[in-house]
């Protein structure tokens, strides 16, 4: 919270924008107290095969990202308040269910509910932040990307605190971490029932019908979705490929929480300066392209070091290099993509387009996570999965729309 207060635009933001930015902080504290440790729980405690772990993680992302388009359309139609409150209530139920789930079908049901909850509240919050950022840009003459970067900083601050909280709670058991995550969302639900406005000025209800057809015909927007999906697939490897690599070199997943903390700390401390520097020099397309190239380089670092079979502290260095390059790439890609959407969306349908950005990328992550899990289990040379992922991130540069 102190980091947010230090941001240059903080004092000029509206009360609604401040609430939504703090919302992202709270969401991620609860979420990341559980998610980084889910793969180990599924593999060790539940006994799932690697491909099934990849499928469940991809299904969680798809049920969240893939259904964002539904949450975004509902936010356009009914406003953000009812959608956010419903999503928080479902997330509470999902976390409690996951804590007590011991069979595959129960785990899948809980994971689907957790993902769908975010599919409700996240696009509502993100689309309103983007809309308010455009209004702030028009009123102040500043860059909307800086406001969206501040939103990213808040999310990463939550992602920094969440894994540390989860690591402490795992000293008890995974169920305790799940119940703590549910408790965070109980507080979020209560706070938003009190503080979130019944109606946001300037946001008029928009009919759900008629918007999807125009969206499908919007080739530039779909190209942006595909490139963003490749980035999200790469980011998802923090929960699939990285835990396996850390387990190999360290003998346990204890260092994983510190690698997550490193990623979040980088974003919290450098996202805003990076955004200001890039905003003065690079257009949105070039910013995203540079970020994807850095992400590809992160995968290549692990691929090149993998044949050496390093272990211990030295073995963790390539994984740390991957996390750093992925994080810097994220700092370039995510705010630029969110800033681009309002320019490509139809009037009154920003929620739908914000949701569609995540829905298309969720489909890519679902397919890509299953393929990655199969690659990791296939007995191929250890560098191959990392080289394939590097190639996917690098190839995504060609998918970006040609004009900003």
TrEMBL record:
The chain crosses the membrane at residues 19-39, 45-62, 83-100, 106-126, 147-168, 174-196, 221-242, 254-275, 287-304, 310-329, 350-371, 383-400. This is MFS transporter. InterPro entries: MFS (IPR011701), MFS_dom (IPR020846), MFS_trans_sf (IPR036259), MFS_Transporters (IPR050171). Pfam families: MFS_1. It comes from the Bacteria. The keyword Nucleus does not apply. The keyword Membrane applies. It is found in: Cell membrane. It comes from Streptomyces spinoverrucosus.
């Amino acid at each position: 919270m102190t980091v947010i207060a230090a941001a240059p635009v903080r004092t000029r933001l509206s009360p609604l924008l401040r609430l939504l930015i703090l919302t992202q902080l709270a969401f991620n504290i609860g979420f990341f107290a559980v998610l980084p440790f889910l793969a180990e729980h599924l593999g060790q405690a539940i006994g799932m095969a690697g491909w099934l772990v990849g499928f469940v993680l991809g299904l969680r992302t798809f049920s969240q990202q893939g259904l964002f388009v539904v949450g975004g359309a509902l936010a356009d139609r009914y406003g953000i308040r009812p959608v956010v409150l419903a999503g928080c209530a479902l997330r509470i139920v999902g976390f409690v269910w996951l804590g007590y789930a011991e069979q595959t079908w129960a785990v899948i049901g809980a994971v689907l509910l957790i993902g769908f909850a975010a599919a409700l509240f996240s696009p509502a919050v993100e689309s309103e932040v983007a809309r308010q950022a455009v209004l702030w840009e028009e009123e102040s003459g500043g860059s909307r990307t800086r406001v969206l970067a501040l939103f990213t900083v808040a999310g990463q601050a939550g992602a920094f605190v969440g894994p540390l909280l989860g690591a402490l709670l795992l000293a008890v058991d995974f169920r305790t971490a799940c119940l703590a995550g549910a408790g965070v969302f109980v507080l979020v639900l209560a706070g938003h029932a009190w503080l979130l406005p019944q109606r946001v000025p300037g946001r008029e209800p928009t009919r759900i019908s008629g918007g999807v057809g125009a969206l499908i015909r919007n080739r530039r927007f779909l190209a942006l979705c595909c490139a963003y999906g490749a980035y999200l697939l790469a980011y998802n490897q923090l929960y699939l490929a990285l835990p396996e690599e850390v387990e190999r070199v360290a003998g346990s997943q204890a260092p994983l929480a510190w690698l997550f903390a490193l990623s979040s700390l980088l974003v919290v401390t450098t996202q805003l300066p990076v955004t200001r520097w890039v905003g003065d020099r690079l257009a949105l397309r070039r910013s995203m392209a540079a970020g994807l190239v850095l992400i590809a380089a992160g995968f290549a670092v692990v691929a090149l070091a993998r044949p050496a079979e390093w272990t211990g502290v030295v073995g963790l260095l390539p994984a740390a290099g991957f996390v750093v390059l992925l994080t810097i790439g994220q700092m370039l890609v995510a705010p630029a993509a969110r800033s681009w959407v309002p320019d490509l969306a139809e009037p009154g349908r920003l929620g739908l387009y914000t949701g569609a950005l995540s829905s298309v990328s969720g489909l890519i992550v679902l397919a890509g996570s299953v393929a990655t899990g199969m690659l990791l289990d296939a007995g191929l040379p250890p560098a191959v999965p990392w080289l394939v992922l590097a190639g996917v991130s690098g190839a995504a540069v060609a998918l970006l729309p040609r004009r900003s």
